[in-house]
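// run 5 | inverse folding | seed 20
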């Protein structure tokens, strides 16, 4: 089955497009996993130096597709049937072969009789109904391996990622945009912390991302009420870098991506790492990380090119290495 996530690499820029306009690009598990694969691949690909993420139609991403059960319960496991041992006795953990087992009335020597076979408990043997829904741990496991892993793939991508938000970004979709390094929004874009409307706790890193972007008070206001936030208000709060007319979104995103792709890619990756970790480290740790990043970066071609071109009063030509 074709997964509605398209990507193309033009020059040094990878563009990823969510393509389920009929569902406002709500993410299925298959789409989510595909995005994780793509961001992981782009991070390691030296030919990709910037990434743009956008959607088709009226929605950037309306969150996770909740129409199906993301954690289907496995079918009950039947007891194993192992080959019978000598004389028809069951193998380890198995059940006996009825064609060679003595009838219930046949005499036997208790001193030489094998121990009774142990049959693993199942719905049939225990009297319990078969598992048909989630059990403890399923939800948190699904979240860790799904939405949180996707947000982590964007945050950890070693290339600058631009979100070109073309419409509604709700729930997971809003957090997917906010995890990007730069956010461009069309005038029609809206950001919605929709979880409270469904009686849910924010997921996909929302309670991690929002306070770092706009502070805890503003973050709680958005999460407690779940009101739609227009593009202009999102920019005023600091969630969006720039708002552009809808017709100019793709062109602006491409221009920004081209500029980033022409830059010193390793320096940008190290800068991203420093900024993303800055709110979780004390001054001493932050300064040590900065010094280590400078040491690593000075060994790159682009750092040497930057120094050479400065001394020669020329424009640098960065190669991303």
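// decoded
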């Amino acid at each position: 089955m074709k997964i509605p996530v398209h990507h193309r690499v033009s020059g040094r820029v990878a563009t990823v497009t969510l393509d389920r306009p009929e569902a406002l690009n709500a993410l299925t598990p298959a789409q989510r996993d595909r995005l994780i694969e793509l961001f992981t691949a782009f991070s390691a690909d030296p030919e990709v130096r910037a990434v743009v993420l956008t959607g088709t139609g009226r929605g950037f991403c309306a969150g996770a597709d909740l129409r199906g059960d993301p954690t289907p319960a496995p079918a009950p496991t039947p007891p194993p049937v192992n080959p019978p041992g000598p004389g028809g006795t069951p193998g380890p953990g198995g059940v006996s072969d009825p064609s060679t087992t003595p009838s219930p009335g046949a005499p036997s020597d208790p001193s030489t009789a094998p121990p009774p076979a142990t049959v693993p408990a199942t719905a049939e043997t225990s009297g319990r109904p078969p598992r048909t829904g989630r059990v403890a741990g399923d939800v948190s496991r699904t979240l860790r391996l799904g939405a949180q892993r996707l947000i982590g793939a964007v945050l950890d991508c070693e290339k600058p990622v631009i979100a070109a938000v073309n419409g509604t970004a709700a729930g997971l979709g809003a957090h997917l945009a906010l995890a990007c390094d730069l956010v461009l929004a069309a005038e029609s874009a809206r950001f919605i912390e929709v979880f409270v409307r469904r009686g849910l706790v924010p997921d996909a890193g929302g309670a991690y991302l929002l306070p770092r972007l706009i502070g805890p008070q503003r973050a709680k206001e958005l999460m407690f009420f779940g009101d739609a936030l227009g593009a202009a208000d999102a920019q005023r709060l600091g969630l969006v870098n720039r708002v552009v007319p809808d017709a100019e979104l793709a062109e602006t995103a491409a221009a920004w991506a081209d500029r980033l792709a022409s830059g010193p890619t390793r320096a940008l990756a190290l800068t991203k790492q420093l900024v993303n970790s800055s709110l979780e480290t004390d001054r001493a740790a932050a300064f040590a990380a900065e010094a280590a990043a400078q040491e690593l970066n000075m060994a790159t071609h682009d750092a040497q090119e930057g120094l050479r071109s400065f001394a020669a009063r020329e424009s640098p030509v960065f190669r991303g290495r």
